[in-house]
UniProtKB/TrEMBL annotation:
Annotated signal peptide: 1-27
Any one GO biological process: proteolysis
Gene3D superfamilies per UniProt: 2.60.40.2310, 3.50.30.30, Peptidase S8 propeptide/proteinase inhibitor I9, Peptidase S8/S53 domain
Subcellular location(s) of the protein: Secreted
GO cellular component: extracellular region
TM region positions: none
This protein's name: Subtilisin-like protease SBT1.9
UniProt GO MF annotations: serine-type endopeptidase activity
Residue span(s) of domain Peptidase S8/S53: 143-576
SUPFAM superfamilies reported for this sequence: Subtilisin-like
Length: 765
């Protein structure tokens, strides 16, 4: 018996040691994206898929410190092989296995997998999309035949926005499919929703013990359904958010097809899954990719989105992405990728309102999205200063006025609700107010300090102040609009500071679009409310507006390059609001917006379809830029997936429809004048015989000149070049200054405008 106990103890100890060793090895495992030189693939392999699989298999047990091959084998995982978005694969590897792969023939580089973050009834009218014969919708046949690929949280296929009433047949070139999964099968696709796939090997490998409840393309978060319907949703009458924003919902390209690629799970995602989704979208044959996601700050050769979008560009696929929601600080924009479109967010001329009617007859219109069905009638109105806890006694069944001074507004909202007040009126001038509108679970409105003063004067002068609150009001035509959204990320970009970003802006604030039925849109006193439509804000909402416009443009101009389409959007964008004044920036105290906030301006679909001139660029032009940025041959190979490029002719002067010049030299004579020059080439896509004259909007303290001052075209598609020079001090006094160059067609309709920025901001961190 004693020997048996000794044996059992010894066996138990061995088992524990083995478990500890296994846990140690599992803790060392990380997911990596491996870039390979496809030209180095041995002839023995029939495909790159089998080559990559063999590399992973051969790496198992080859590390110097790996002693148990079988254990290593169970811990290794080959996740994806990439065919288009990158040359390479992703795998979950131990440090020794990674080292073995790095020593394999054809290895180029490796990067650890990284987290990815998630960055309309009225927007078509606000952007002047309508059914007139000369309009963008009519000319493009509403995007008929175009395919928009959306990489996001999936889709709610039962949404009315994805019904195929009136939709054309699926293009014969389409190679995608609807992949079966949890609560999703191929019957849920149709002529509108023509593809649905999902990708989660990366998040599963990076997140131990993760259980995915909806293992399919079905959207249980809402974000993907929202963005997809903005880009290409079908017509839905009587759409609203509990009565707010009521009207006919439809996407920017209502007759375009949608393909969804789910790569975000429970608001979490990894680059390996996103890269696989983009890779598949290119393979399937999409025309446009809409990506409302952010990766953080990376150099171009380490940025999976930069690498994937370069591949898309080479295939002629237009790539739009959100600029990010990091706010009004200069340099907050991470997406400086020069071969895609970075889209900032703006407001519309629509307000969602609640109305406070005071007993003296005065009315105050505030912002509100309270979805409840009842109004508050003739209730006592009390002012409780900043609504600290000690100020909220005896407020039950009363309407409480709070002043947002140095408090946290969301905390203030919670306090009023917890005090059992009947309703709340919050006096605030916050620029991010749109992000607070859905927070109150009780009747509430938000008013300006000016309107708040009127209300406080009434409260202080009345012996029995009372008010009525009404909701579900919508105002159209509010001014000024658009405004740059305060949350929208600003340039310059750290990854490519020589290219002005963002490129354009599009509606992103309080956008009504389709939503999942898997989760409530709001809670009213702990009671969940569901809606087929939701109203949310972000550059995530702006991006699909631009992607939908790209589909319209590509429908009319199928042979245009992604650069030409981007140019058309930029040079026709509006920099004037609906008061005929320069667009203002809500994140900069409503000062005039700079191109670092709004890019070239607000997209204008009708003008973009017929821009007159375009600034074109191809892969070679971008490589010349990379060379000028001193990327190595290896780094360029990672980005381009090719070893054919060389840096014999570098050029930092990319043929881009905007200009940014840095006057920040630390010099003993900071006021000494220097000149920066830019070379550009435009292609005539307007009238065959036409002449354009340059007009400069000046920049204070700088001399901007153009040579030649006129461009005379003899035929369509003719190319002509010009040089723009900016003379200014080595170290400028202002942080940012801006102007523009416009080529005006003499005796014609075209105005081809490009923003110009001068700045003393640093190029790098």
């Amino acid at each position: 018996m004693g020997s048996m106990r000794t044996y059992s103890s010894s066996a138990l100890l061995s088992c524990l040691i083995a478990i500890l060793q296994l846990n140690f090895m599992l803790a060392q495992l990380e997911t990596h994206i491996i870039h390979m030189d496809l030209s180095a693939m041995p002839k023995a392999f029939s495909s790159h898929h089998s080559w990559y699989a063999a590399i992973v298999s051969n790496s198992i047990g080859r590390g110097e410190q790996v002693s148990d091959t079988s254990t290593s084998s169970t811990s290794s995982s080959h996740l994806y092989s990439y065919s288009h978005a990158a040359n390479g694969f992703s795998a979950r590897l131990s440090p020794d296995e990674l080292k073995a792969i790095q020593n394999s023939p054809g290895f180029v580089s490796s990067f650890r997998d990284v987290h990815v973050t998630i960055d309309t009834t009225h927007t078509p009218e606000f952007l002047h999309l309508n059914s007139i014969p000369e309009g963008a919708w009519a000319k493009s046949n509403y995007g008929k035949g175009m395919i928009i690929g959306v990489v996001d949280t999936g889709i709610w296929p039962e949404s009315d926005s994805f019904k195929d009433d009136g939709m054309p047949l699926i293009p014969s070139r389409w190679k995608g499919k609807c992949v079966k999964g949890t609560s999703f099968d191929s019957s849920m696709c149709n002529r509108k929703l023509i593809g649905a796939r999902y990708f989660n090997k990366g998040i599963l490998s990076n997140t131990l013990n993760l259980t995915i409840s909806m293992n399919s393309a079905r959207d249980i978060e809402g974000h993907g359904t929202h963005t997809s319907s903005i880009a290409a949703g079908n017509y839905v009458r009587n759409a609203s958010y509990f009565g707010y924003g009521e009207g006919t919902a439809r996407g920017m390209a209502p007759l375009a097809h949608v393909a969804i690629y789910k790569a975000i799970w429970d608001n979490d995602a990894f680059a390996s899954d996103v890269l696989a989704a983009i890779d598949q979208a290119i393979e399937d044959g999409v025309d446009v990719i809409s990506l409302s996601l952010g990766l953080g700050r990376f150099t171009l050769d380490e940025d999976p989105i930069a690498i994937a979008s370069f591949a898309a560009m080479e295939k002629g696929v237009f790539f739009a992405t959100s600029a990010g929601n990091k706010g009004a600080a200069y340099g907050s924009l991470d997406k400086g990728i020069p071969w895609l479109l970075a889209v900032g967010a703006s407001s519309m001329d629509r307000e969602l309102n609640g109305i406070a009617t005071l007993d003296n007859g005065d009315q105050v219109i505030g912002l509100s999205m309270y979805p409840g069905s009842s109004s508050l009638e003739q209730l006592p109105l009390v002012f409780r200063n900043q609504c600290y806890l000690h100020e909220l006694h005896n407020v039950r069944d009363k309407i409480v006025i709070c002043k947002d001074i140095d408090t946290v507004l969301d905390v203030q909202i919670d306090r009023v609700g917890n005090a059992s007040a009947a309703g709340g009126i919050f006096i605030t001038n916050r620029t991010y107010l749109e992000l607070y509108l859905q927070l109150p679970s009780y009747p509430a409105i938000f008013v300006t300090p000016k309107d708040g003063e009127l209300m406080l004067n009434y409260v202080n002068s009345s012996s029995n102040p009372r008010a009525t609150l009404e909701f579900k009001k919508t105002r159209i035509g509010t001014k000024p609009a658009p405004l740059v959204a305060a949350y929208s990320s600003r340039g310059p970009s750290h990854s490519c500071a020589s290219v002005l970003k963002p490129d354009v802006m599009a509606p992103g604030t309080l956008i009504l679009a389709s939503w999942t039925q898997a989760i409530p849109v709001v809670l009213i006193k702990s009671r969940p409310l569901f809606s087929k439509f939701n109203i949310i804000s972000g550059t995530s909402m702006a991006c699909p507006h631009a992607a939908g416009l790209a589909a319209l443009l590509k429908s009319v101009h199928p042979n245009w390059s992604p650069a030409a389409i981007r140019s058309a959007m930029m040079t026709t964008a509006d920099n004037i609001d609906n008061t005929n004044n320069p667009i203002k920036d809500s994140g900069s105290r409503y000062n005039v917006a700079t191109p670092l906030a709004m890019g070239a301006g607000q997209i204008n679909p009708n003008k973009a379809l017929d821009p007159g001139l375009v600034y074109d660029a191809n892969a070679e032009d971008y490589v010349k830029l990379l060379c000028a940025m001193r990327f190595t041959k290896k780094q360029i190979q990672i980005i381009t997936r090719s070893s054919i490029w060389n840096c014999s002719n570098p050029s930092g002067d990319l043929n881009y429809p905007s200009f940014i010049a840095y006057f920040n030299a630390n010099h003993s004579s900071p006021n000494a004048r220097v000149v920066q020059e830019f070379q550009r080439t435009v292609t005539n896509v307007g009238n065959a015989r036409s002449t354009y004259k340059a007009t400069i909007t000046p920049i204070d303290g700088f001399q901007v000149t153009v040579m030649p001052e006129t461009l005379a075209f003899d035929e369509k598609y003719q190319k002509l070049s010009y040089k723009l020079s900016i003379e200014g001090p080595r170290m400028m006094k202002q942080v940012v200054a801006h102007g523009s160059l416009a080529w005006n067609e003499i005796g014609g309709k075209y105005v081809v405008r490009s923003p110009i920025v001068t700045t003393r901001l640093s190029l790098v961190d």
